[in-house]
Design brief:
The protein has about 200 residues and is an all-alpha fold. It is built from seven helices and no strands.
Amino acid sequence: MSNSPGDEKVGAAVTLGLLAAWALHDAEELATVPGWWRRELPALRERFPTVPEAVWRRAGSVEGREFAVAVGAMAAVVAAASAAGRLTGGRSAVYRTALDAFGLHGLVHLAQAGLVRGYTPGSATSALVVVPFTLWARHRLRRADVLRPTRPRDLAVGLGLAGVATVGAHAVGRWLTGVTSARRRCSRRRPGSAPRSWRRWR
């Protein structure tokens, strides 16, 4: 006899699985983002001339180290949401919103790949992991009777969370790499020596 809605429990595969699926997805991005931008940026500039130049400059200036730090910052957010889902049996609003944001993030990747008519970083695991996992997890939450019907507001909140988390993680990455670079420059100077810009005016 099949279980009725509400009889099934939400296991770790559904809640902590969000973190695992995210890790697979961002592993692809870590491996491909810096090199992809270096190769494709000139062609993208020509193909989409209406995009502001500041956008292209910012995209091309992201180094591998900065991106890796941003991924680490995002890992903390996803881990916290997954833990909240695990502790509440999937009832956590934070977890459910993060799950929706993850799935919508995957759809954005697929839309980007369609726009450029080719591969974009993250699009492979979006098709193979992100979207399928999100649909499966939502199905399991629905079977456990802990998922309310999706409203347009829920989609807006999910997209907003994905956007804010992404921007915030990259801001953290840019700040931390800037701080460490400044410290390395200072440590390379001889004790008691003045910067070159000062010595010129002596």
